[in-house]
Amino acid sequence: MAEHEEKKHEESFIEKIAEKIHGHDSSSSDSDDDKPSESSIQAKIFRLFGREKPVHHVFGGGKPADILLWRNKKVSAGALGVATVIWVLFELIEYHLLTLVCHLLILALALLFLWSNASQFINKSAPHIPEVQIPKEPVSEFALALRFEINRSFAVLRDIASGRDLKKFLSVIAGLWVLSIVGSWCNFLTLFYIVFVLLHTVPVLYEKYEDKVDPFAEKAMHEIKKQYAVFDAKVLSKIPRGPLKEKKKD
């Protein structure tokens, strides 16, 4: 009888220990579940312009993105070199476009003409001049894409001019004002060349140092929003709204 009670006492003691161990494991698992996962922490990291995809995907992920991000260094360097030669010819040497095209055509036609006639005397085959034709499908696709972008630009301008979004209106006005100042410093070709060089340098540098740039950009965006909130409270909120804004509120 005493042995039976002793066994019961041992079994109850073992069960209590097991319950304590189980309770400790469940609490630790709950605490682990409460901890944010690494993926969720990474998802909350601020990215410039609110992007959620890599820089390569932002630029389309195709050949243009490979060129801008220097995936193919030969093609990227070649594109930048051609743009530099064109800028030097027209801006520094002050070559005119029509003059350059005519000189290139004169040189090409003269070489082909002389080669075609001289091949009979030097016993060599005449140059093969390919038949060049502009394909219909790429031109149609480009025209449709250009038409779509122009119509979308018109829609955006109409939306801004209608007075529905004051923030967007001020942003566009400020952007155009800055662009007009830059345009007074240089001509269109130089501005186009500067933009082309920036597109071939800034994205690849940002992709390389994005972990350092994004925290700084987050602080800058926070400060801009803070200053805009003050400006909105002191100035923009006191501007009377138009009829479109009143209808929208109703």
UniProtKB/TrEMBL annotation:
<protein>
    <recommendedName>
        <fullName>Reticulon-like protein</fullName>
    </recommendedName>
</protein>
<feature type="transmembrane region" description="Helical">
    <location>
        <begin position="169"/>
        <end position="199"/>
    </location>
</feature>
<keyword id="KW-0256">Endoplasmic reticulum</keyword>
<dbReference type="InterPro" id="IPR003388">
    <property type="entry name" value="Reticulon"/>
</dbReference>
<feature type="domain" description="Reticulon">
    <location>
        <begin position="64"/>
        <end position="250"/>
    </location>
</feature>
<feature type="transmembrane region" description="Helical">
    <location>
        <begin position="75"/>
        <end position="90"/>
    </location>
</feature>
<keyword id="KW-0812">Transmembrane</keyword>
<dbReference type="Pfam" id="PF02453">
    <property type="entry name" value="Reticulon"/>
</dbReference>
<feature type="transmembrane region" description="Helical">
    <location>
        <begin position="96"/>
        <end position="115"/>
    </location>
</feature>
<keyword id="KW-0472">Membrane</keyword>
<keyword id="KW-1133">Transmembrane helix</keyword>
<dbReference type="InterPro" id="IPR045064">
    <property type="entry name" value="Reticulon-like"/>
</dbReference>
